[in-house]
Amino acid sequence: MARFKLSRDDSGKHTWKAEGTNPETGRPMTIRGGQPGTPVGRENPRSERTFDARHDATGMTPKKYINKLRWDNKAPLGRFLDIPDRLFRRK
Question: Sign (positive/negative) of CA torsion 1, 59, 14, 66?
Answer without folding.
Answer: negative
